[in-house]
Amino acid sequence: MFDWLIVGAGFAGSVLAERIASQRHESVLLVDRRSHVGGNAYDCYNEAGILIHRYGPHIFHTNSQSIVDYLSQFTQWRTYEHRVLAAVDGILLPIPINLDTINRLYGLELNSAQLEEFFASRRETVEDVRTAEDVVVSTVGRELYEKFFRGYTRKQWGVDPNQLSKSVTARVPTRTNRDDRYFSDSFQKMPAGGYTRMFERMLDHPNIKIMLQTDFREIRDEIPFNRLIYTGPIDEYFGWQLGRLPYRSLRFEHVTLDQEQFQPVAVVNYPQTEDYTRITEYKHLTGQQNARTSLTYEYPTDIGDPYYPVPRAENEELFKRYEALGATCPDVWFVGRLATYRYYNMDQVVGQALATFARIQKSVPEWASAGKASLAEGAL
To answer: Which keywords appear in this protein's UniProt record, sorted alphabetically (predicted)?
Structure first.
């Protein structure tokens, strides 16, 4: 009998496993379908000895000191400020759009005040900003929307930006200075030994047992447990009984080249050309020295593991119905990007997991044994 079964060994599940094991001194069984811990943040050394991110680049950034303090128990950090270029009209330009982006694209010499006037002269008035397209055209105008955003968004999501929630592009700032950092958070660093090593240290506790390549649906009736934390897709937990929630997936093409460097920054976006959305070169992220270099090409798709909830009104409505079902299940906590149908950064998932643990501490007596029967109610 385990006190807790946790489904999913990504950030949400691993943080909660560590907190329950170390602070409540209760037993945890952590299961994951994949052959490794770390979820999408998993990294590993390839055949060339280069540390790569198997599921695309993960750059840690946050403004929360408490989240930094928590994770720092399990890793040291390497300072890294993420910079991204976009291949637009045959030129590599900084993204998010800043002063250098506009000056180089149009051959201008604007200052910050003049750039604000430039944007103001091109903005479209949108009375009710509802879609991803509305956000961009009302900020920088139609031409920059077409050059930088429309093609990338269509590739990423498989639909036009005017069919997507404004949240898709609201995350991307526009700057009138020369700050070319992709993020502006106060803390921007990478785990010095990689994400996987950080997860392994987090989960190195005698109260935690890990079962990989294990499907929750196959063991839920075979292994006794008292309480459940579920970080997988919420519609799958309920056997898709209300219909399937749409997710976008990614196909990754990993390549190693016999040259020291391929591109000037870690990530180059391709909003206008090519079938892939971006190319990542990992040595920029890790600071590794190697005569060869490793890249990942990303191809968005509807087929494969769920990565991104698709932000459309009808999908949010369906999720709310699943969320209501989840509220009827005693002793089950739904946590993380897939279980709450939200796009979260890594620090936000850690914060959500720590907040969930705080609620558990308030509501669940330690060493209580309520039995497992109620967990199956409402679930198929």
So the answer is: FAD, Flavoprotein, Isomerase, Plasmid
